[in-house]
Each structure stands twice: as structure tokens, then as C-alpha cells.
Amino acid sequence: MLNNKNILISGGTGSFGNKFLDIVLKKYKPKRIIVYSRDEYKQFLMKEKYPLNKFPSLRFLIGDVRDKERLTLAMKDVDCVVHAAALKQVPAAEYDPMEFVKTNVNGAENVVMASINNNVEKVVALSTDKAANPINLYGSTKLVSDKIFVSANNITGFNIGKNKKTIFSVIRYGNVLGSR
To answer: Could you say which of 68, 130, 142, 164 is catalytic?
Structure first.
């Protein structure tokens, strides 16, 4: 499924991205894996762990899901997107709610539109257990994100049987040992 594919992982330097990269590099032969994140230091550390001479399929791009133009450029010729970028700390969400809306909600819309504009085949967005019956702003922003991704299938025609290119899915992920 991931063999000979171009894959982009947003928030790729986080705990999920690191583990995802480990598994993909061990079990599959992707054509290209793009680690897309705004954390240049974590990208530096990942480049040391996965040197280009041993992992020629890896690419690292600095970028933020808030920046639709950069995201659209990063997704050129990408087959599969794993969207893991999000702000996740519950207390920070209560203190700075608009920053969470910009990343978790507006960023989700940017991922959807960039994926459609680049004819990406599959997009999988990571959600959280906190999006089920949310009681805080973080969970609420992730619930809205989930709805954006699921409803994007209406844009591409997935739910009404038209020819389509991009299929959107959401998986719930939360309270994982060793994650932030």
C-alpha cells in the first residue's frame, strides 16, 4: 500500500510522526517521504537519525499547516497524506484558544484544500479521544477538524459515487504511552 508512493506527514517531527517514520522505513519501500513540520530543531535531530545517504527517500520541509500556499507546494506529486499536525495541550488551548482554532481547524481546511488541489489519493487525519463529546476547547477543535475531513468526501464525490481522486479518513488516537 505504501510501496512506491509519495507520502507527506504533517507534524512529522512529533511522537506519532517519529514512530510512523520508523515503521514505514522498516516495512515499506516508499518513493518519497516528506516530513512537514515547523520545528526545525526536531527536523535536524531526525536528519541525524535518518541520514540521507542511508534513507534517500526522505525529505524534510519546514512549513506550517496554517500556510495554505506552502502546504499546497509541499503536496505536489504526493499520493498519501498523514495529517498529524495539531496543537494538543489542553491548558494551552484554554489560555490561547484562537491559536488552536488557527492550527487545528483552519489547518485542517488547508490540508483538505491542498490535497484536493494536488489530487492526493488518500488523506488520513489523526484525531483524539478528546474529540468524542468534547468538554474543552482542544477536543472541540479536533471534533471540528474531524467533521472537515469527513465532509471533504462530499467535495470529491466519494459519498455520492462520482469519479473522485481524494479519499479522506479520520482515525482516533489518544492517550498513547510515550506520546506528548
So the answer is: 130
CA distance 178 to 180: 7
| Cα 60 to Cα 39: distance, rounded to the nearest angstrom | 11
User: What's the predicted TM-score (pTM) here?
Assistant: 0.91
For 130, residues 6+ apart whose C-beta sits below 8 A from its C-beta are 90, 136, 138, 139, 142, 174
- Provide the pLDDT for residue 150: 95
Length of the chain: 180
Specify whether 54 is catalytic.
Answer: no
In the numeric block, the cell 535536524 is attached to: 44
If 0-12 CB within 10 Å is exposed, 13-18 middle and 19+ buried, where does residue 42 land?
middle
Q: b/e for 79-99, b at 16 or more Cβ within 10 A?
A: bbbbbbbbbbeeeebeeeeee
pLDDT tens by residue, 99-142 = 999 999 999 999 999 999 999 999 999 998 888 898 999 999 99
Distances (CA, A) of 83 to 51, 52, 73, 119: 24, 23, 16, 16
Q: What is the rounded CA–CA span in Å between residue 113 and residue 69?
A: 10
